[in-house]
Structure formats: C-alpha cells, structure tokens
C-alpha cells in the first residue's frame, strides 16, 4: 500500500513537505498535476490540483525518488508545498480522496526503510536522536551513528566471532588425532581481544549517558551563600526563590543548559546545615542524594576560611563584592559575585574544562542507548562462558556460547528478534518519519 503523511512540523511556516511512499506514489503524484514528467531525484515545479474536482490547491515543487534509491527503498514522492494549517490540510484531504493511498502510521516510513535494508536498528535510533538532539555534541554523535559507525563496530565483532566458530569447527573436524596443544590458548587469546574491545566500548557508556541525559552538576553549600542566586544567573531566568532567610530552598530545582555543545543539568539544592526543621531536613536529604547522582559539584562558600577542594568539586567563593579578596587565601576557589555578575565566565570555563576531560577525544561509537550497554554486557558474558568450557571435551558448548554472542549482536543491529525493539523505538517517532 502506498502511504502518505506530512513530514514537517505543524503550524504556520513558509513551507511544508508531504511524503508519499509505495508502488503507486508516482501515480498519485501524476493524479494531482497536469502533464508533467518526473526524473529521479530532480525537483519539478508544479501546480497541484484536486484529483477529483481539479480545483487548484497550491503551487510548489515535487521530487520523485525511484525505488530502490530512496529513503524507504520504495518509490517515494515529496511534495514541497506552502506551509500553514489551511494549505496543508487542503492538500492532505485532496490526497485522502485517492483510493489507493492511506495515511502513514507512526514511524512507518522509517519502518519501511528498515524492512528494505536501507537502515539498521542503530541507524533508526540515531535518526531519532538526530531529530531530538538539543545540543551540538548530541547532534554530532547521532550523525556518526547514522553514518553507520556503531553498526560497523558491531558487525566487525560479529565477523570475528563467526570466524572463531568456524575455526573451532574446522580444527575439530579435521585434526582429531593431532590437535595442536595450544588450540585452546589460541582461542582464549582471540576471545580476550574481542572482550577487550567490547569492554572499552562499555567504558564509554557513561559518556553515552551524559550525551543522553546531560552532565549533572549539583550546586551545594551552606544556607544563604547564594546557590539559588547562582542557578538563576546561569539559567538567565528566575527558577529558584532567593531570599535573605537561611534555609529558603527545600526542593531540588533543575535547569538544562548547553555548555560547549554538551547538555548540562544544573541542580540547586537546600543549604546544608544541622536543622530541627522537618521539611528543611527532607530538603537536605534530597541535596545529599543529588550530590551522589551528580558528575560534578559546585560548592559555594562565602567565608574564605571554610574553602575546601575535593575531587570533582568546583569550589566557588561568592559575594566577593562584600570582602577584599586580595587579602585572603582562596585556594582553588573561583571568586564570583552573583550580585555584580562577576567571575561567572571563569566558572563556566571551569565547567567546560571538566566536561571536556570526560570526552578527551572524539569517539564515533559512544553507546548512547541503554540497550547497547545491556546487549554488549550479555555478549561479554557469553564469551566468558565460552572460555570456561573445556574446548577439547565439549567443543559444541564453546560454539554454542559463541553463537549466542553472535545472536546478541544481531539483536543490536536488528537482524534478529527485532519486533520488540521496533515497537519501543517507533513509539518515539511521529507520523511523518
Ligand atoms: N552581596 C551579595 N549578596 C548576594 C550575592 N549572591 C546572593 N546574595 C544574596 O544572598 C542571599 C541568599 O541568597 P540565596 O541565593 O537565596 O542563597 P541560597 O544559598 O540559595 O540559600 P538557601 O536556599 O537558604 O540555602 C540573598 O539575599 C541574595 O540576594 C552576592 O554575590 N553578593
Ligand atoms: Mg536557595
């Protein structure tokens, strides 16, 4: 069946794109234009008419992609029309009057691309990531994955494991009497090399987590030191209540920022002190949890004598408008005044530096989804199981473990057992994708 849907976001806009995919896409295009010729991947200027009453609908461009050289692998047509609610719905309802067209389901274009081997599961997820990316680094990683960096890595592992199973089968078939002594060692070494690659991939999953959910920074310190004032300044809006009363903030207040292209989540917390106030203590407990969950902590001081530096902590001395800092020892602390908006650039630079330390070099294969992490962990498990079996006694068990590793890689790229993932993945997709 040929499907159609609007692929651009709704609302007032200069242009909108309607996409059609399926064996009768070109026929449908010809039904709404008069005497036009379409060449693969070339734009053609068209006037579009209602297929039944022939009323002029809009003027724009049409482009036709001949199967299999299209996004879905089927014949695809894109109508580039004017945007806006009335115009797009008039064109869409004209298409609805064509009997052999039907409106696409959520993610159906991408699903067809997948079925026609135009894109694998990692590519689909990367496409979703690209469309949802909020910062440059998220965007870059999504582009890498869309370019096939992850599937290349996974398929390379698959190839190596297949070679290993083949090797075992061949050696055991033909060399029964004079098996080389080192066959088992040899196999273990080869497996270890693959495991090492997988572990280094897993070692990057914390980066994947940061790219997905943000680098988490908690702002902590004693009451009244200016934590909420600082988050408001960083957020460039009033997200937290500021007052001269110590113990103002009780809940954790989060803001999302883009620092050096990375998604960063900053959390303002309740001031830390001994308190008899039940609600304040609840807030302090939340603050302590936030410290544990964060990748780095900004600790705010106002008294230079109290400044301490810890690993992953950024000490900050606030309210320097009230003291003469030249006479004080500030240690590692960054001197700022939220009131005067001074020193904030230094703080941002420091945050940037810490995040960049997490990402020292560009890696194209950061596992950005939990399922990659879980899948690769499972594969490592199978490979370790394979090593635990005595190769000479039960070679078939070794092969079985290797095969389950190969199978698991297939689940990652989507060559096997794909239905369960597709359902979950396409839930996040909209109709026109
Ligand atoms: N002079 C001066 N006052 C500041 C500065 N930053 C914040 N303040 C004031 O310090 C007081 C406390 O600020 P908050 O931001 O509410 O402090 P907090 O750390 O969030 O306090 P709690 O939520 O109670 O833990 C307010 O009166 C702010 O206006 C600064 O740089 N200089
Ligand atoms: Mg506060």
What value does the average pLDDT take? 92
Under CATH, the homologous superfamily of the largest domain reads P-loop containing nucleotide triphosphate hydrolases
Radius of gyration over all CA atoms, rounded: 29 Å
CATH architecture of the largest domain: 3-Layer(aba) Sandwich
The total number of structural domains is: 3
CATH topology of the largest domain: Rossmann fold
The parts where pLDDT drops under 50 for at least 5 residues are none
| Derived structural class | alpha/beta
Q: Give the number of helices.
A: 14
Content of β-strand = 15-25%
Measured as a percent range, the helix fraction is 40-55%
- End-to-end C-alpha gap: 17 Å
Instruction: Let me know the number of strands.
Output: 12
- CATH class of the largest domain, please? Alpha Beta
Order of helices and strands: EEHEEEHEHHHHHHEHEEHEEEHHHH
The shape is flat
> What ligands are attached or bound here?
guanosine-5'-triphosphate, magnesium ion
Strand order of the largest sheet: 3-4-5-2-1-6
Q: Profile the largest sheet.
A: 6 strands, mixed
Outline of the structure:
The chain has helices at 25-31, 85-96, 108-115, 121-132, 136-146, 149-174, 183-202, 205-213, 227-235, 278-293, 344-358, 370-388, 395-413, 419-427; strands at 2-6, 15-21, 43-49, 56-65, 76-82, 101-103, 215-221, 253-259, 262-268, 296-301, 313-317, 334-335.
């Amino acid at each position: 069946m040929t499907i159609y849907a609007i692929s651009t976001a709704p609302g007032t806009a200069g242009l909108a794109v309607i996409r059609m995919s399926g064996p009768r896409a070109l026929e449908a295009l010809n039904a709404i234009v008069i005497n036009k010729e379409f060449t693969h991947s070339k734009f053609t200027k068209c006037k579009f008419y209602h297929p039944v009453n022939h009323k002029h609908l809009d003027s724009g461009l049409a482009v036709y992609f001949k199967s299999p050289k299209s996004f879905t692998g089927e014949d695809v047509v894109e109508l580039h029309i004017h945007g806006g609610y009335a115009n797009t719905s008039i064109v869409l309802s004209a298409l609805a009057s064509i009997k052999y067209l039907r409106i696409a389901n959520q993610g159906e274009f991408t699903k067809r691309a997948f079925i026609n081997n135009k894109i694998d599961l990692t590519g689909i997820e990367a496409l979703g990531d690209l469309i949802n990316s909020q910062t440059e680094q998220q965007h870059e990683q999504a582009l890498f994955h869309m370019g096939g960096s992850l599937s290349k890595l996974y398929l390379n592992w698959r190839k190596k494991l297949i070679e290993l199973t083949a090797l075992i089968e061949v050696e055991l078939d033909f060399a029964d009497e004079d098996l080389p002594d080192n066959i088992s060692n040899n196999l273990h070494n080869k497996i270890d090399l693959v495991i090492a690659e997988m572990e280094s991939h897993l070692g990057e999953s914390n980066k994947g987590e940061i790219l997905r959910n943000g680098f988490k920074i908690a702002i902590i310190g004693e009451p009244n030191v200016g934590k909420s004032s600082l988050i408001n300044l960083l957020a460039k809006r009033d997200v937290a209540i500021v007052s001269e009363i110590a113990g103002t903030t009780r809940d954790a207040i989060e803001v999302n920022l883009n620092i050096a292209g990375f998604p960063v989540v900053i959390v303002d917390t309740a001031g830390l002190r001994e308190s008899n106030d039940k609600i304040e203590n609840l807030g302090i407990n939340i603050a302590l949890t936030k410290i544990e969950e964060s990748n780095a902590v900004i600790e705010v001081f106002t008294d230079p004598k109290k400044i301490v530096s810890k690993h992953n902590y950024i000490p900050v001395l606030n309210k320097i408008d009230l003291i003469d800092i030249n006479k004080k020892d500030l240690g590692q602390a960054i001197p700022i005044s939220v009131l005067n908006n001074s020193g904030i650039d230094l703080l941002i630079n420091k945050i940037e530096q810490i995040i960049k330390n997490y990402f020292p070099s560009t890696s194209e294969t950061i596992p950005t989804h939990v399922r990659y992490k879980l899948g690769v962990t499972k594969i490592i498990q199978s490979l370790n199981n394979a090593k635990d079996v005595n190769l000479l006694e039960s070679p078939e068990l070794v092969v079985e473990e290797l095969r389950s590793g190969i199978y698991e890689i297939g689940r990652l790229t989507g060559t096997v057992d794909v239905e369960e993932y597709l359902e979950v993945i396409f839930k996040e997709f909209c109709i026109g994708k």
